[in-house]
Design a protein that fits this description.
β7, α3 and β8 form a beta-alpha-beta unit. The protein has six helices and twelve strands. The protein is elongated, with a radius of gyration of 20 Å.
């Protein structure tokens, strides 16, 4: 945890906050801060700044805060994922937040096992806690928006209309075009498939929605490895100034 996140309701009109629970434990036991010491603090979906400790007890830390930094707007990345195995999705929540994702769309596909959508990993309380972990690690404050579409598939034409003005990309090991070939586009949407990859029928559907294929290299990658690698590379591109939506393949 490199930044402590609080809800706006926890901050009073004078900028004072009382921190409890795991955040208090982290300040006391990991950071080992004392009265007068400062630490980074942020309001969820709001500004960040510095908090100075005014009082410490075993159950709480009181601090006076100054929130003077607006949320980072360097690169907004949106991700579309065909629902991976629950244990993979569990691992992905925090890294997606760390990388500055704006929206996370989870959709269905031919090779997605139907029971995947019944997992507790998709419960709001579960994934929001993991997203907060990622935000606190990366010193971000903006919570990714999550949309879970059990009935949304590559056939869902209405879903894809929101990307009408985006450059639409499907990452495939067999493609000869590299990711940097589309680096000059401010709006980019890339599609991440399920275990075993997209079926030929689904690939034709993506082509019908205007997707073109690019390569992440000749080796098929797992969902979590491919997603984190692609997003990291895309976010580092100097011309990626507005948005990236991601969907890649796992096989």
């Amino acid at each position: 945890m490199n930044m402590v996140l609080v809800q706006i309701s926890e901050v009073d009109c004078w900028g004072a906050v009382v921190i409890t629970g795991r955040r208090c434990d982290h300040i006391n036991k990991i950071l080992r801060l004392k009265v007068g010491d400062s630490f980074k603090i942020g309001v969820l979906d709001g500004r960040s700044g510095i908090a100075e400790i005014t009082e410490i007890s075993g159950a709480s830390v009181k601090a006076c805060c100054s929130f003077n930094a607006e949320p980072s707007d360097l690169v907004r990345i949106d991700v579309i994922l065909a629902m991976p195995r629950p244990k993979v999705m569990k691992r992905l929540w925090a890294p997606l937040a760390m990388l500055g994702i704006g929206r996370i769309f989870i959709i269905n596909a031919d090779k997605v096992e139907k029971y995947y959508f019944d997992t507790h990993v998709l419960d709001v309380d579960f994934y929001e806690s993991r997203l907060v972990d990622g935000l606190e690690q990366s010193c971000r404050t903006v919570m990714p928006k999550v949309s879970i579409g059990r009935t949304v598939t590559p056939d869902s034409a209405a879903f894809f209309t929101q990307f009408a003005e985006y450059r639409k990309v499907l990452a495939m090991p067999a493609s000869v075009k590299q990711l940097d070939a589309v680096r000059s586009y401010e709006k980019l949407v890339i599609a991440i498939g399920p275990e075993g990859g997209w079926t030929d029928r689904e690939l034709n559907q993506f082509a019908g929605h205007g997707f073109e294929t690019i390569s992440l290299g000749p080796t098929p990658l797992k969902v979590d490895v491919a997603a984190i690698s692609l997003i990291s590379v895309a976010a580092a591109m100097p011309d990626s100034s507005v948005g990236i939506e991601s969907c890649i393949r796992d096989s």
